[in-house]
Each structure stands twice: as structure tokens, then as C-alpha cells.
Amino acid sequence: MTAKALNRIRKLDDAAEQAGGYVMDPAKVKHDPQKEQDFMMLRRYCIVNRRKMSELTADDFRKAGITNS
């Protein structure tokens, strides 16, 4: 990888960090019913347990019924 490419990547990373993280055009996201169900389960878990999604641990994912598969 060239120094020029690395510099562009660093600039992109910095811009993404300032904007709150990377984002993707929702129109380009593939529909995945299982992932949507996992998200709904996590959201429900967070509401019931008064936790932020950013605070969840691997144990929380297991408790919410989400596995790595």
C-alpha cells in the first residue's frame, strides 16, 4: 500500500470518527430477516434492561438470544 493510499485512509478514518462512525447507504444494505430479528431482540433487551446498545457485552447478547451463527 502506498503512502498516498494510507494518507487517504487516515483522512477517511478521521472524518468518519468526527461524524460519529462509518455509515452506509441504506439502499445498498442487503435484506437479512435474521439480522433484523436479532436487532429487534437486542432493542427489546436494551429497553427491558435499561441498557444502551453500546454497553452490551457478549453475555448480554447470549441473554438476548443472539448467537454467532
How would you sum up this structure, described in words?
The protein has one domain (3-64). It contains three helices and no strands. With 69 residues, it is mainly α. It has helices at 3-18, 33-49, 58-64. It is elongated. It starts with a helix and ends in a 5-residue tail after the last helix. α2 (33-49) packs across α3 (58-64).
Largest sheet: none
Please state the overall shape, judged from the principal axes of the Cα atoms: elongated
Order of helices and strands: HHH
Counted by DSSP, the helix tally is 3
Helix percent reads 55-70%
Radius of gyration: 17 Å
Ranges with pLDDT <50 over ≥5 residues? Answer: none
Question: What count of domains describes the coordinates?
Answer: 1
Which whole number gives the mean pLDDT? 86
* Class derived from helix and strand content: mainly alpha
Q: Approximately what portion of the residues adopt beta-strand conformation?
A: under 5%
Distance between the termini: 33 Å
Give the beta-strand count.
Answer: 0
What is this structure's SSE topology?
Elements: H1 3-18, H2 33-49, H3 58-64
Quickly list its features.
69 residues
Quick structural summary:
The protein has helices spanning about 5-20, 35-50, 60-65. It is mostly helical.
